[in-house]
Design goal:
By secondary structure, the chain is mainly α. It has four domains: 50 residues, no CATH class; 87 residues, no CATH class; 193 residues, Hydroxylamine Oxidoreductase, Chain A, domain 2 (Up-down Bundle), CATH 1.20.850; 37 residues, no CATH class. The chain is built from 21 helices and no strands.
Length: 421
């Protein structure tokens, strides 16, 4: 019987309109740019402020009611699904290492990698570079781009819905520019980019033409390698290349596009080979204790501890000079080389990229020679301490996978034979 009054009331409840849901906000925010933009958008009359921001004004005022991709996904489910499948869908994870052991950490950061109440991380892709920055640098210099994983507003703006905003390549330039990922600069000064600026679409492609065909939000379609340049597995790479060629042939002969992309593949692999050569030089110096400061004598890496880190999680503070040279070679010059090649830009591929890679490699070799001359070179000689160091170097190389079990056993046997002479 107690349900009857409730049911009776529900029969006469009038649905609250979007206008009414936003009326309380308009009392104070009627002249705000956010309100003006909302009224000029496709959301006008369909959504009220509380539909996206919630009704807890205190939480809103404290910045705790962020409009996440999940909020937008209530109406834009397909776009959200596509977004999460793309590289944009791991924007925060690509640069944010776990902060659980950091002093004074912000507990809200847990939501970068975990669903509410779930101890399992959403993704295992982690760096550590962000958590070595000040919170101010993290907000302005890191999250303004990497928040794209969880914020549709990163590209669309917070309240506007005009398609021309996200169809302009400049919206991509906010993040895809600079020394470590110069896609926009490489495109802008390529034949595609110069034609786009002169003629616009459809006579020339913008970023969205190739990376968001038919408006898809999966910006990773057609890519055959992640940002590091390490190739995908063959089957995945072939599938992605087919997708890109399907797009290219809208303007080019398929065979022409295939040859051009194969050349870019070769440039990428050649560049990674030079990066690996530099990496081996520095690892050998570390094995011999010749880096200054040595990893065990510097501030520990927040994820890897007192070890030499030369991969995507490499930091650029508290490192030796030769590691600084390697960071610029790997993170900047190498990226310019192969990203320039894939965007058909000769100057970025050659002078900004390839030439700089080789010049930095020369500097690394010269610095390595200086460090060896300053330190005690490790060779298989008659001095017992040298033997111990030689065996330690061999063991480290084997542990890293640079020496097979057979090669390690043979080289170790040679050292032991000299000791017993």
């Amino acid at each position: 019987m107690r349900l009857l009054p409730i049911l009776f009331l529900l029969l006469f409840v009038t649905p609250i309109s979007a206008e009414e849901r936003g009326r309380d906000c308009l009392a104070c925010h009627q002249k705000d740019s956010a309100n003006r933009q909302l009224l000029a958008s496709d959301h006008a009359g369909k959504l009220g402020c509380a539909d996206c921001h919630g009704a807890d004004h205190v939480a809103i005022d404290q910045g705790k009611s962020h409009v996440s991709v999940d909020v937008c996904g209530r109406c834009h489910a397909q776009q959200l699904e596509e977004h999460r499948k793309s590289r944009h869908g791991m924007g925060l994870h690509a640069g944010w290492g776990c902060t659980r052991n950091e002093k004074g950490r912000d507990k809200q950061e847990c939501t970068f990698c975990h669903q509410q109440g779930d101890s399992q991380p959403i993704s295992t892709v982690q760096c550590a570079r962000f958590i070595t920055q000040t919170s101010e640098m993290g907000q302005i210099g890191c999250n303004r781009c990497h928040m794209i994983e969880n914020s549709c507003g990163s590209c669309h703006g917070n309240h506007l819905t005009a398609a021309k905003i996200v169809q302009d390549p400049m919206v991509c330039a906010k993040c895809h520019m600079g020394p470590d990922h110069p896609q926009w600069e490489a495109w802008q000064t390529s034949q595609h980019g110069t034609l786009f600026q002169s003629l616009g679409m459809p006579d020339a492609p913008g970023c969205q033409t190739c990376h968001m065909p038919q408006g898809t939000h999966n910006v990773s379609g057609g890519l055959t390698a992640p940002p590091s340049g390490k190739p995908y597995a063959q089957l995945k790479a072939e599938e992605q290349r087919t997708k890109m060629l399907d797009l290219c042939q809208n303007c080019h002969a398929r065979s022409f596009a295939a040859r051009d992309l194969l050349n870019a593949d070769a440039v990428r692999l050649q560049t990674l080979s030079l990066v690996d050569e530099a990496r081996r030089i520095i690892r050998d110096l570390d094995d011999r204790g010749l880096l200054d400061p040595q990893p065990r004598n510097r501030v520990e890496h927040p994820q890897r501890g007192p070890e030499l880190v030369l991969d995507g999680a490499m930091l650029y503070e508290d490192i030796s000079h030769i590691e600084s040279l390697f960071f610029r070679l790997n993170k900047y010059a190498a990226a310019k080389t192969f990203k320039g090649a894939y965007h058909q830009n000769p100057d970025y591929t050659h002078w900004y990229g390839n030439a700089e890679v080789k010049l930095l490699l020369n500097d690394i070799k010269g610095e390595a020679n200086r460090l060896r001359e300053r330190g005690v070179p490790v060779t298989i000689s008659q001095e017992e301490p040298q033997y111990e160091m030689a065996l330690e170097v061999l063991q480290r190389r084997h542990t890293r996978g640079e020496l097979s079990a057979e090669d390690y056993a043979e080289k170790k046997r040679q050292v032991l034979e000299l000791i017993l002479q």
